[in-house]
Amino acid sequence: MYQPYPSASGLPQQPPRIQPPRSVLTAVKLMYAGAALSALLLVITLVTIGSLKAAIVARHPDYTAAQLHAAEIAGVAGAVIGGLIEIGLWLWMAWANGRGRGWARVLSAVFFGINTMTLIVIPFLPADRLPPSAGGVRSAATLIIAPLLWLVGLGVIVLIFSKRSGPFYQQQAAL
For 73-90, what is the mean pLDDT? Predict the structure, then answer.
């Protein structure tokens, strides 16, 4: 028995993909810029990791060689893991917001809130209360890049919650 090949009209119709508005596209580009800034900060942290040992010794002069080595390993691992997570979150949010996922818009706002609290609290912490990956030192790069990352995040939030972006997220949720 012969069955004709189904034509395009016989297949279920997929709704057309809605193109994101310029505000969402700009927000996605800003998220990529946030990932690039985070990568730059990670590279600077790794390049200046040599100051970590001196900072640990200054904070804990009674550490044995084994304790000092363990603290260095923890500091480097914390910096690398934290940096990679931050880069991954920027890229994930860029991908999800570019597709109009409403949960990504909310999660982006939560991440921005966490970043805001961190930016407010960290400068007021005494050096001995900073995490080991910071080495107790507030580098010039961190003092410059952290506020830039916050400004990028602010731009993202303004753009994805703008009036022009709202319908895109609502239409995508309906699909």
Answer: 92
Complete DSSP assignment for 118-166: HHHHGGGS-GGGS-GGGTT---HHHHHHHHHHHHHHHHHHHHHTSTTTH
Question: 77-86: b or e for each residue (b if 16 or more CB lie within 10 Å)?
Answer: eebeeebeeb
Contacts of residue 73, defined as CB under 8 A and 6 or more positions apart, other chains included, come to none
Instruction: Say how far residue 14 (Cα) sits from the centre of its chain.
Output: 33
Residue 57 CB contacts under 8 Å (≥ 6 apart), including other chains: 63, 68
Q: Are 175 and 15 in contact (CB under 8 A)?
A: yes
Residue 175 DSSP symbol: -
Cβ–Cβ < 8 Å for 105, 167:
no
State residue 48 phi and psi, 5-degree precision: -100, 20
pLDDT in tens, 17-51: 688 999 999 999 999 999 999 999 999 888 888 77
Q: Would you kindly state where each structural domain of the chain is located, as residue ranges?
A: 21-174
Which of 155, 135, 119 shows the shortest CA–CA distance to 57?
135
